[in-house]
Amino acid sequence: xxxxxxxxxxxxxxxxxxxxxxxxxxxxxxxxxxxxxxxxxxxxxxxxxxxxxxxxxxxxxxxxxxxxxxxxxxxxxxxxxxxxxxxxxxxxxxxxxxxxxxxxxxxxxxxxxxxxxxxxxxxxxxxxxxxxxxxxxxxxxxxxxxxxxxxxxxxxxxxxxxxxxxxxxxxxxxxxxxxxxxxxxxxxxxxxxxxxxxxxxxxxxxxxxxxxxxxxxxxxxxxxxxxxxxxxxxxxxxxxxxxxxxxxxxxxxxxxxxxxxxxxxxxxxxxxxxxxxxxxxxxxxxxxxxxxxxxxxxxxxxxxxxxxxxxxxxxxxxxxxxxxxxxxxxxxxxxxxxxxxxxxxxxxxxxxxxxxxxxxxxxxxxxxxxxxxxxxxxxxxxxxxxxxxxxxxxxxxxxxxxxxxxxxxxxxxxxxxxxxxxxxxxxxxxxxxxxxxxxxxxxxxxxxxxxxxxxxxxxxxxxxxxxxxxxxxxxxxxxxxxxxxxxxxxxxxxxxxxxxxxxxxxxxxxxxxxxxxxxxxxxxxxxxxxxxxxxxxxxxxxxxxxxxxxxxxxxxxxxxxxxxxxxxxxxxxxxxxxxxxxxxxxxxxxxxxxxxxxxxxxxxxxxxxxxxxxxxxxxxxxxxxxxxxxxxxxxxxxxxxxxxxxxxxxxxxxxxxxxxxxxxxxxxxxxxxxxxxxxxxxxxxxxxxxxxxxxxxxxxxxxxxxxxxxxxxxxxxxxxxxxxxxxxxxxxxxxxxxxxxxxxxxxxxxxxxxxxxxxxxxxxxxxxxxxxxxxxxxxxxxxxxxxxxxxxxxxxxxxxxxxxxxxxxxxxxxxxxxxxxxxxxxxxxxxxxxxxxxxxxxxxxxxxxxxxxxxxxxxxxxxxxxxxxxxxxxxxxxxxxxxxxxxxxxxxxxxxxxxxxxxxxxxxxxxxxxxxxxxxxxxxxxxxxxxxxxxxxxxxxxxxxxxxxxxxxxxxxxxxxxxxxxxxxxxxxxxxxxxxxxxxxxxxxxxxxxxxxxxxxxxxxxxxxxxxxxxxxxxxxxxxxxxxxxxxxxxxxxxxxxxxxxxxxxxxxxxxxxxxxxxxxxxxxxxxxxxxxxxxxxxxxxxxxxxxxxxxxxxxxxxxxxxxxxxxxxxxxxxxxxxxxxxxxxxxxxxxxxxxxxxxxxxxxxxxxxxxxxxxxxxxxxxxxxxxxxxxxxxxxxxxxxxxxxxxxxxxxxxxxxxxxxxxxxxxxxxxxxxxxxxxxxxxxxxxxxxxxxxxxxxxxxxxxxxxxxxxxxxxxxxxxxxxxxxxxxxxxxxxxxxxxxxxxxxxxxxxxxxxxxxxxxxxxxxxxxxxxxxxxxxxxxxxxxxxxxxxxxxxxxxxxxxxxxxxxxxxxxxxxxxxxxxxxxxxxxxxxxxxxxxxxxx
Length: 1387
Description:
Strand content: 25-35%
Oligomer: single chain
């Protein structure tokens, strides 16, 4: 079984699920209907900058459909289906199916009319369409992407203009011999640059509704757009004394999804300055010119909270800023402060004229990479009142309300509460928007109710992260209000602010269908909590006993209990009518910093505690240390559930008394499973007592028989129905192997997970369910090329070949229906080896991040608290308020786990556009000091008997156990670091060798003299090998760390990159180690000497005179450093070779298969071993020198050589197909290969002029003929496109084709029918017009779609042909250096 998981698959899956959800939920019915009514399977989007005409079928008699620039057109599915039906009725060949439709486009460029035929609508991806050889800078981007259940096909210019401005602006396109075009660029939108202006035109801009400003200086499109640049443009005012209107522009290369995607450029237009309001209030802002003391921003526009205000009149000049908060006072403005430098903070002081208190506002400035200055206004703290009571704030040491509090109270808080009322009445008063955030700046805070006179709480800190309980009293009543105050970050967009939330500390929740009457201990007044209701709780007598009692109708008050600790227990209440003691479940949960006391009815079929009296005596049970509790009376031969009078007692003990007798009590610890032996009351009465587990219940068994077996007693509550069926049902599945291929968004294969010999057996009967899973082999391969760790995770071989790597066994009982009851749960894992390199880890984390983003978009429900639209306080839902499902295990057993970890850092080169994550920065700074070699992590077993807990509690137990185990292994991890020489590995190897030296002979001595001799040889060999390996491994680690640190200090990125790639090639034995060491030493000397000249030259090319000086310094440093590093490399490579000689003859682990081949289109295809191996050889040759080329063909030659063909080169490679190491013997450019001549058991490759002859030996003459035929076929296929285009350009470059008759036609039919190609040489004998007509016909049948995607049938028929056909670097056709799918046309 093979499974492929890619970004495209996940994207489609989640989009389908999202669509299904929209269609399912009624609250989204309207959007679902609107989408279904306007649904089209395909949408064509015109982003070329000009109008286009399209048709779906080339031979259609319908008029072409005109699509204006910037618009889209939906292709109706009815039209497609009718066309398909017509073809079927006419018995036409079905060469085009519904999912392989093709688009025909006429692009109406004034100077470049073009027809584009057979553009595929089904092939998801991005493609480049060249429009002219004479104008290679002009090409289109053709994109096919998913949108809900449709495909969107976009044809657009490769240069786009976008704006992040909130307001619109005008664009003016100008060019020689071209009409001026004026376009309105709306705020936060994109427009394409018309293709005819690229390379010849220019762009100017100015504000939309302001004719008082002139056009800006033009942005030239004549220079080559090949790199990013920033610039600013000012539109001068026509009026005097008005500042200029400034725009910033940035030209950037849009990030490619892969090296096969075409270049796309984006011109961004934005304001030089942005002021963002991160305050909870709307504000007004003044920007003041510091030199003239004039207000630069002419209007005081109200800036809403969370909004951004673009400022066009200020561009990093000295200026001040001042703000006003209209909610405080419209006329009150803060002090003005200079706009701080990037990265620094200033504070503005705003005085509230009502309370005469000050509020501080932070002003922070930072410069974006695009040179845009962002000025943020933020507050230190927001206060959020979620108590549903009117709360006032003030800073300590003053008797005045906080700044803005009086105005805030009138609008959002209201007056005080009636303390004489039932607490439930306090929360029925409508207080609109009382949970809105309040702006606050002091670090200390005091609270008070709005009731007069104010009684203020003790001051507490709002600057400390965490939570604290604040108690608040009243003047007229002894009520004690308990609030919890916790400090956390504000929502992401307000990340510079701390949000201080105030909410009730206690909530009482009634999950029963009865009214609950609750009261404080020793208080006569009772309060009512309605069924299924929730209410904040406060102590009505703050000076009284802080314990709670409850009762139901017609029952006595329960025993008193505390509510300040998380606990779940049964509560006893005496029913006056039935004269029975009933139990109610109390669950105290800690949720969102508050304690919820949840009352629910006892509906479980088990009791936490039970007492079985199987004696002839009447007993009385009393809890130790609970003098106010009621004793439990047990008649002879009866059983009853037991609940604690004081559930919070640390020691759960009971006293067992005999009723009406003065016998001394027997003390029993109920929480410990124990036999208490015999207890003699008199000569005739002897009782045996034992605490044991019966499922999730703890049972005290009391009997007068010493060896008592529990009889079948009647159940206290009904068990789960067993049903009438008594049969056993079983299912068994065996999988020989499962492969899961993980593909990232490049796309490239990231990892391959291989599972072998998987056996699953499940069984079920009326008593229990059982499951057993066995797995023999697991391997995770790193499928990236040139990686030091090709195998990420695998199981080392063991002495027992048939042992399972993974074994899970569990048995679940059906005895109880309200809990999940496991008779047994066992898990066993064999030892694992985990090898990870830096590049693989970062790419894996990126893949996981993409999946999480998909999941968040598709499934996540936004539960974040909206500070500006607070939801009403509702009772807990059934799911929140109900207890979690309980888990019970008679025995939970997880065997010891052993993992050996290796981590290797790498030098990763990133483009300037790519962002560097904090983890990457940390790893880059650590360098070789982060390397870990074979760090052993040993986790002890976990065995739990009779655990009874929730899933969350079980997870906490597991995390606590294994986290403590890992913390104890920190020293072993540190001792495995390369920079210390991996002393743990050294000790382990030496210890293993010494142990084997004594153990193996002794083990053989027991069997026979022959076994003794064999054991002596084996033990001695192990001692020598392990000792040599350990010593030289430590030596190579130490010297390798020294060289890595020296290289990192050189600041030579090219040298770092070369060494990182070279380090992947490890020596297999001492001879290879010396050879590689000598090579590294020679390269070090060579680079050190040549760097004295090369580094200043490179520096001068990049930075001018400053770069020359820097380069000279680097060159002189390298003159000493690089030869020294080369000498140390010689020692490192030699010691590595000696170390690896000891394991040279050991079995080596390899990948299950080579990385998947994707082809030039980067489209997921069925796996091909031949193509995958060919691409692997090409990508690893010469340390990745030819990785950008596209594999075409390879064949093994003799036993240790390979003939390899790419789209640019002919290779002769030394190596065995089954191996992963290949050495390049020689290579020739594909255009320099003039002839392939067969000889006896050889092939001669002739270069230009037949002067350069290369001989390739072949085993047999028959194979010689076959290889020559295959090579001729593949090479001619590559050249065919070049020759046709060359001839087409040769005869048409002076012609200006007419739009309607002679427009160049780009078609996509060619490679499907190679027989249709005619002989190009015959074209030379025709007239000029005939030649042009014939070549146009050949271009008509030549491929562009098949350069994009060749059908599977064609692949099978011609496995050696070019999959790319994008041209090579030689000949007269320009090289396609990125190997993109190129559709090429001529003028």
